Amino acid sequence: xxxxxxxxxxxxxxxxxxxxxxxxxxxxxxxxxxxxxxxxxxxxxxxxxxxxxxxxxxxxxxxxxxxxxxxxxxxxxxxxxxxxxxxxxxxxxxxxxxxxxxxxxxxxxxxxxxxxxxxxxxxxxxxxxxxxxxxxxxxxxxxxxxxxxxxxxxxxxxxxxxxxxxxxxxxxxxxxxxxxxxxxxxxxxxxxxxxxxxxxxxxxxxxxxxxxxxxxxxxxxxxxxxxxxxxxxxxxxxxxxxxxxxxxxxxxxxxxxxxxxxxxxxxxxxxxxxxxxxxxxxxxxxxxxxxxxxxxxxxxxxxxxxxxxxxxxxxxxxxxxxxxxxxxxxxxxxxxxxxxxxxxxxxxxxxxxxxxxxxxxxxxxxxxxxxxxxxxxxxxxxxxxxxxxxxxxxxxxxxxxxxxx
Amino acid sequence: xxxxxxxxxxxxxxxxxxxxxxxxxxxxxxxxxxxxxxxxxxxxxxxxxxxxxxxxxxxxxxxxxxxxxxxxxxxxxxxxxxxxxxxxxxxxxxxxxxxxxxxxxxxxxxxxxxxxxxxxxxxxxxxxxxxxxxxxxxxxxxxxxxxxxxxxxxxxxxxxxxxxxxxxxxxxxxxxxxxxxxxxxxxxxxxxxxxxxxxxxxxxxxxxxxxxxxxxxxxxxxxxxxxxxxxxxxxxxxxxxxxxxxxxxxxxxxxxxxxxxxxxxxxxxxxxxxxxxxxxxxxxxxxxxxxxxxxxxxxxxxxxxxxxxxxxxxxxxxxxxxxxxxxxxxxxxxxxxxxxxxxxxxxxxxxxxxxxxxxxxxxxxxxxxxxxxxxxxxxxxxxxxxxxxxxxxxxxxxxxxxxxx
Lengths: 405, 405
What we know:
Two copies of one chain form a homodimer.
Chain A: E1 2-6, H1 10-19, E2 27-32, H2 35-43, E3 51-55, H3 61-70, E4 75-78, H4 85-95, E5 98-100, H5 124-127, H6 130-136, E6 139-141, H7 150-162, E7 165-175, E8 178-179, H8 190-198, E9 202-205, E10 209-212, E11 220-224, E12 229-235, H9 239-247, E13 252-257, H10 261-272, E14 281-283, E15 290-292, H11 294-301, E16 312-313, E17 315-326, E18 329-340, H12 341-348, H13 352-370, E19 377-379, H14 386-395, E20 401-404
Parallel strand pairs in A: 1-2, 1-4, 2-3, 4-5, 5-6, 6-19, 7-13
Antiparallel strand pairs in A: 7-17, 8-16, 9-10, 9-13, 11-12, 12-13, 14-15, 17-18, 18-20
Helix pairs in contact in A: 1-13, 3-4, 7-9, 7-14, 13-14
């Protein structure tokens, strides 16, 4: 297997470090817009001869297709931000390569009823091209990070092995991470967090289909395992709600993010003041008036989460809560994966949230290389057998857990 | 009297409209950095031949002194933002003109104990030059808007006519203004509001002198008159606390601003995220990286308060609450001035907060022109007899009130 990894940010760099310990691939080309970032990721791996740094603009579809051809890559792994999903997805199709990403094409709210009906949904742009991928016998494995990704694998595992009938599948994400020396320091990209949290959250119900609610709806306190404890969670737009119902029977699918009360209030304030906007405003500067996106300014005022690993303490938990019945009796389980930042920093030099996102596409690549997972079309993680994935994840030194409720 | 008015923003424009109805002056030169703003203010007054538009950079001390000389002005009225206090104050001194402002030279927090001790206090830079003004027999009347300004006049009135002994003087400012069509739209410059509210609030106590507290300290609910009702008020850095104790005996002086709970939380969030900062951050733009001040971006995301008068409803109240004794009996009064936005828009085309600030320096100029008020040195409004001011304010059609508590 010859992989083109696009994006050498936090997650991309963690992918190289995890992959470097595995033998399943021949070459991994690490390409970034910033040549220094790609070089730094490759250099950090020492004398592993399988990694090559290169430069590419992820928004330039033709350049990406040419890079795939030049390095004879059969897989494109997208580790950039969601704005680049479509050019990378199309470039892989053009080059005949397998495609993987960890977030799907962006949504657009309903023009008149944004908090009641879906407009363009997450992944819609990708799924409209499914027939084309199927026809050519090529695979696009979409949403293959931790959430979406491992959370979808958990859903498939629950449907296959734990339940006869599923009432509700609820992804629940929470953490107790703190950053020394900062009163406020998100552990993940604030740009993406705003995008996720202020877009209308999507919910699925059998019979009704997908619909949206107001941001931060249905607050609930969820008790996370391994000492993290209770965190307030709210509905957030997330890929799992769009993926799970395509392959798994469940009467309701939700995603709730354990943002905590303070963070929710902070995001509401940013929205109230229009500081979440991405369209530019005109501001004075020493060199005269300039046009900047308020959301970029918010990001610039906060520390870069990729640099915070050393100062971070605590654990992050991703998981899937399932309620239904087995053998006629009601059952409720939470399937979860916890990463302790101290462990991921010591073991890989990567902060917990980034490492947890990165490990899953590497496991998936290894299953594809071995032929354990195979398919064609645009498929989510729940389209594949779950057990081999969970076993291989454990073999990577990062076991998952299950709590009967 | 020949007046140079520097600044043709909201307050400057309101000053011209109020002054145009009075006969006490011969000429008012309206100068602004933006020639169009000065022209617009003068043009709006029709055929009143006493007003002249001109252009000046308020930060250019020599240019301002030259402008005073060129127009033979004997008074400089500063209606710019507080960053320009010192160059304008010095320019007036150079030219031998009387100086008036509505906000004083800026403070700088104590380098080590910002929330316990004062560093450089509001007005310190001006008061250090008091001897020079006195020696030359020239007057700088500082803090002569509504707050500081009318609030200080109220304090003097209370000391002269209502009390034998004063325990506490507390300026209390509150409003019930709303802006149609906006969830969040401050009625005054957000830049200045952040400056006022996030600087360490200053408090005066006899024996202890001036000291600071943490922002938003000592929240209290104050009941404002004329239907405004209860508003949560918190300590804020304001000039009155520095002015009143210099001329009036009181055991405690405070300033509390009726920001309301939501606004306080909003300012706290801006501070938590570093969006109140004025030092530039580097942000991407279409034309490459640029350096902008986050606080300027916050201001750019919000509507310009000067343009909101038509959409605003409600009243604003400035006042001075005094507690002490008279004739051996305890007494407590609130002296106040309320402006209804509907009235100020109909009568002057100016929104309430801006009009209320602007009327007071015009009244003061008229008292100086008549010789009712006179003096030399750097003096606050409480250095002058209060009764003539309050009577003339009433004659301007804008009466004040008093509530015995």
